[in-house]
Amino acid sequence: MSSVLDDLVDEVEPAPNIVSVMAGTKPALLLSIDVGTSGVRAALFDERAQEVTGAQVRSRRSAAVSGFAELDPDQLVDEVVKTIDELLTYHFHSAAQIEFIAISAFWHSLIGIDAAGQHTTAVLTWADTRAGQFVKDLQRGFDEREIHARTGCRFHPSYWPAKLLWLKNEGNERFRNTQCWLGFAEYLCLRLFGENSTSISMASATGLFNQRECDWDWDFVDQLGISPDTLPTIKTQTNTRLSDDFALRWPALAEARLVTVVGDGAANNIGAGCSTKDKIALMVGTSGAMRVVFQGEPVDDLAPGLWSYRACQRRVAIGGALSDGGGLVQWINESLNFVSDEITALEPDSHGLTVLPFWSGERSTGWRAEACGGIFGLRQQTTPVEIARAVLESIAYRFALIARALDAIAPNATIAASGNALRSSPAWLQIIADVLGRPLLLGGTAEASSRGAALLALEAVGKIANIEEETFAVDQVFEPDMTRHARYQQGIARQEELYDRLYGN
Description:
- The protein is an alpha+beta fold.
- The protein is 34% helix and 22% strand.
- The chain has helices spanning 19-23, 73-89, 133-141, 144-151, 160-170, 173-177, 184-193, 200-203, 218-223, 244-249, 264-272, 326-335, 384-406, 420-423, 426-436, 448-460, 482-503, and strands at residues 28-36, 39-45, 51-60, 70-71, 97-105, 111-113, 123-124, 180-182, 197-199, 209-210, 215-216, 233-235, 240-241, 257-263, 279-284, 288-295, 307-312, 315-322, 354-356, 374-376, 414-418, 440-443, 474-478.
- The strands form seven sheets. It has a seven-stranded mixed sheet, with helices on both faces. Strands 3-2-1-5-14-13 form a six-stranded mixed sheet, with helices on both faces.
- Helix 12 (326-335) packs antiparallel against helix 13 (384-406) and helix 13 (384-406) packs across helix 17 (482-503).
- The longest helix has 23 residues, at 384-406.
- The radius of gyration is 23 Å and the shape is globular.
- It starts with 18 loop residues before the first helix and ends with a helix.
């Protein structure tokens, strides 16, 4: 669907034929800001959640998983500010009024601020595993199954409980000076809007949030020894405007109000058209994830390999996440000398290798942060291309385990794949389809998180009635070979056996 502003965006000044429009009510626009660990994107959307042609700016930073475990908060805020600066210099908004702002940001980050609102720590992301030793303390002190059922989160260093225990144990001056704990999205909103609060979506992925009550799990907070005053207020809705300094910097945004702040995973599903139980989104970037988003309440019997968060107050996001995805494949491509086209010539699971793809530790399905990557079965005659194929298959096996767990929630759902790492590798897409034994639909929106945040915001202000009507745009379908699927079950069984020997209870 073309935007009503497509014919206007190239004009710095309104053309004569739209003066009457400008004299009356200008079309409303929405600014969507997507903050990821690999870059920032700002884009304008019309009232139908269609991107204004050409009104997009993106900054990119390239790093391995270890490179974004800890981020400089002010540098990241500056990157967001400069991205918005660049977008607004093009005057895409000259024929319309930017009325709304939506933010999508990476989940699980933690940052401390002092009484003056200055950060006392760096941004600690999910990839920072230094709190791993405190996971065992949590497991000894609490019933993990009960906490998982309440918060939707396992004990893992990617979440706040272990990180806060680690920081407290450090006992340094920075911790003692911390007055409030935030995620980066909240720190960004504090800087841009002067508001110290969090959304349901962002709070839901901390490990301290009660998924059913939509509030902090105060009993767990108390048992952890965390002062209630150090947690931000959870707002079910926001309607705030930019601080005076930023309103002066960006006159085009002076009247705009912040409507939505959402976790990037949920936003990605919604923006891609996967917001009902009949579609599971499979996304591979540096890491990887499989998620289902739907209207309703959290499930009663959440599988231990899955997490459960909130997209918003009335939508649940359930899935599993891999710490290694496209980043590991990139590492293999850079480390081994092989011809990628030769991967397709190999028979499934014909290399005799068993790979545990945990170069960056493990999240779903076993949640062993201490897990290490391993290649078992190497022989003198093993070739680089065999290792590469074995790694691709091993990651597909982990997705298969997540898919099995999701079947109880979204039975017979279509699996819709997206992400640059997959688009560049048809061979890997076919491997995943064969491993899953189900058709794999490749497609979606190129920048789904930006659009997902925009859709939620426009729904919240009444511009869009039902985002569930959004459909997944299919570019290609990869049909499974069931003979290969049967063979891959042996590979999954070997991987699970090796995992249990190394990390099983």
